[in-house]
């Protein structure tokens, strides 16, 4: 059985779309653990409406994506655990495909897949067209949290998400929790693999750059910088990861694209700040606040 940990806040219609896709799954042996971070009862009617389609455990949790997911993991009873966002949706055979991949590859602790929009184009993160074993070299191109499916027994031995990383964390590091999970599995000698035929859907991320996107870039950059420090990546690799947004910033300045330049600069500053701050971030929140 699969346990689907769905953490949600401030969404309804998109969560309903996810539930509708789950009701159409060809594999029926799954449970939903809905970790509700809303302060009201807006989801009660939705839960009651789908309760006859599949088992739903409705939990309450404070803010913080990693914290909420760990609360859900603690209640999971399935052999496999996955983490669909509240604004993604599954193909009818998504769970059946994941189950088949685990059966065919008993040595794997994690299988990951690709995230596509409704038209079949890559969304959220870039992924390849070939199956590959996941390593420290390719972890960024092997899917995002929507497409991570993990054996629960392996998750119990490695641990859940680092609550110092991810959106809503009390720390300044507002991303990289899923990459951290993959890297911890790799570091423990577990086998992980990416399969392009395993598909989850998600709308394209809005590409218009504004103040909110620039602020988010810096926050997410801090998470990635912390990840680089936490997993002790080599100096050449860290330099490469810093150089990419630095070059993008310079190119955007040369082209007089002020918004793009501000976005790249925010990402660059975030990486540097996160790398410097990990792990002793406590008490420095004010020094890492977004500049106006």
Quick gist of this model?
It is built from nine helices and nine strands.
CATH topology of the largest domain: Spore Coat Polysaccharide Biosynthesis Protein SpsA, Chain A
What is the tally of beta strands?
A: 9
The total domain count is 2
CATH arch. level architecture of the largest domain: Alpha-Beta Complex
Can you give the mean pLDDT? Answer: 93
Enumerate the spans where pLDDT stays under 50 for 5 or more consecutive residues.
283-292
Distance between the termini: 49 Å
SSE series: EHEHEHEEHEEEHHEHHH
Query: Globular, elongated, flat, extended or rod-shaped: what is the shape?
Result: globular
Q: Tell me what portion of residues adopts beta-strand conformation.
A: 15-25%
Number of helices: 9
Largest sheet: 9 strands, mixed
Helix content: 40-55%
Protein architecture, described:
- Strand 2, helix 2 and strand 3 (56-60) form a beta-alpha-beta unit.
- Strands 1, 2, 3, 4, 5, 6, 7, 8 and 9 form a 9-stranded mixed beta sheet that branches.
- The chain has 9 helices and 9 strands.
- Mean pLDDT is 93; it is low at 283-292.
- The chain folds into 2 domains: 1-200, Spore Coat Polysaccharide Biosynthesis Protein SpsA, Chain A (Alpha-Beta Complex), CATH 3.90.550; 209-281, no CATH class.
- It has 292 residues and is of the alpha/beta class.
- This is GT2 family glycosyltransferase.
- GO terms for molecular function: transferase activity.
């Amino acid at each position: 059985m699969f346990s689907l940990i769905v953490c949600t806040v401030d969404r309804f219609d998109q969560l309903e779309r996810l539930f509708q896709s789950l009701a159409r799954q060809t594999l029926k042996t799954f449970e939903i653990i809905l970790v509700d971070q809303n302060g009201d009862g807006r989801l009660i009617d939705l839960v009651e409406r789908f309760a006859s389609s599949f088992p739903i455990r409705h939990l309450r949790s404070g803010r913080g994506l990693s914290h909420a997911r760990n609360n859900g993991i603690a209640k999971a009873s399935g052999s496999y655990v996955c983490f669909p966002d509240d604004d993604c949706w599954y193909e009818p055979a998504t769970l059946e495909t994941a189950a088949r991949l685990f059966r065919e590859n008993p040595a794997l602790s994690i299988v990951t897949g690709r995230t596509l929009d409704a038209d079949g184009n890559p969304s959220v993160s870039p992924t390849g067209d070939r199956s590959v074993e996941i390593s420290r070299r390719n972890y960024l191109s092997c899917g995002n949290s929507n497409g991570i499916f993990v054996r629960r027994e392996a998750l119990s031995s490695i641990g859940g998400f680092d609550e110092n990383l991810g959106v809503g964390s009390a720390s300044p590091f507002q991303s990289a929790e899923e990459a951290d999970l993959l890297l911890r599995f790799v570091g423990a000698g577990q086998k992980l693999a990416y399969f392009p035929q395993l598909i989850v859907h998600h709308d394209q991320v809005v590409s218009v750059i504004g103040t909110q996107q620039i602020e988010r870039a810096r926050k997410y950059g801090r998470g990635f910088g912390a990840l680089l420090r936490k997993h002790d990546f080599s100096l050449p690799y860290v330099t490469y990861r810093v150089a990419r947004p630095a070059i993008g910033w310079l190119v955007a300045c040369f082209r007089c694209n002020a918004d793009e330049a501000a976005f790249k600069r925010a990402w660059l500053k975030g990486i540097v700040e996160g790398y410097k701050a990990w792990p002793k971030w406590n008490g420095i929140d004010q020094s890492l606040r977004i500049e106006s």
